[in-house]
Amino acid sequence: MLSSLLFVMQTYDIHPDIIQYVIGQILHYVSCEVFNRMISNKKLLSRSKALQTRLNLSILEDWIRVNNLAPKLGDHFAPLVQLLQLLQVLSLQEDFPTWIETLKKLELLNPIQVKRVVSAYRFEVNEPRLGDEITQYVLQIAADTEKMVRRQMMDRKRERPLTMISLIDTSAIQGNGASSARTSAEVGSSSTTTPLTITPALLTETEKARAKQRQREQEEEATLLSETKNSKAWLPFKIPENMAERENGSKRVFVPLIPEEMMSLLDTYSSH
């Protein structure tokens, strides 16, 4: 499917940046879906399944390289790769210092996901078990993370009204500073002060800023507390500045063309 899609986009001369974005969005979806299925299904949380999945994933990585696509497309697999690495080395953690060093290399996995792997891991025949010290540490870190995030959520809810007022006041001062500027002599001679007014447009911009901030906070909280990845999230997209430019520096002129077959079809319909 990926090869067919790439062939069609290249045949229709789609801009390389847009091709990279489309392929990246698909790989992001595939990576998140595989990640979610593995971490949600206890039968897949084993070393043998991790090895099989890693071999299949290497086929996609080879496909990126063979088709001369940007190597950074492979970064979409990074969380999944770290999950597979954890599954492959989990039973090899002989002591607590070794476990700490392993966790330092798995920075894309949150404590809740690590807890899920440790709690639901399916040990195979004669596979050594994790020590109690490691298990208790993982459970404690996950519990502390949940408490910390929920405490931050409560603190933000209490602070949001004050932050909103200060944001409005600051914006109002900046917006009315030019029109209400006075010289020191005028200020000294005036016995009254002009109150700052907040326009509807200013409130709209403030509400937008507040909504964006709240959305970022919710995304951060969801990332820290969720076992799964959001496969429906859209990657940032930027329209290429010059749609006519190509990788070799040449520019192409696009001339609209209607194929002869289509013209004949139109003539046929117009004659009836």
TrEMBL record:
<dbReference type="InterPro" id="IPR002710">
    <property type="entry name" value="Dilute_dom"/>
</dbReference>
<feature type="compositionally biased region" description="Polar residues">
    <location>
        <begin position="176"/>
        <end position="188"/>
    </location>
</feature>
<protein>
    <recommendedName>
        <fullName>Dilute domain-containing protein</fullName>
    </recommendedName>
</protein>
<feature type="region of interest" description="Disordered">
    <location>
        <begin position="176"/>
        <end position="195"/>
    </location>
</feature>
<dbReference type="InterPro" id="IPR052072">
    <property type="entry name" value="Vascular_dev_regulator"/>
</dbReference>
<feature type="region of interest" description="Disordered">
    <location>
        <begin position="207"/>
        <end position="227"/>
    </location>
</feature>
<dbReference type="GO" id="GO:0051020">
    <property type="term" value="F:GTPase binding"/>
</dbReference>
<feature type="domain" description="Dilute">
    <location>
        <begin position="1"/>
        <end position="144"/>
    </location>
</feature>
<dbReference type="Pfam" id="PF01843">
    <property type="entry name" value="DIL"/>
</dbReference>
<feature type="compositionally biased region" description="Basic and acidic residues">
    <location>
        <begin position="207"/>
        <end position="217"/>
    </location>
</feature>
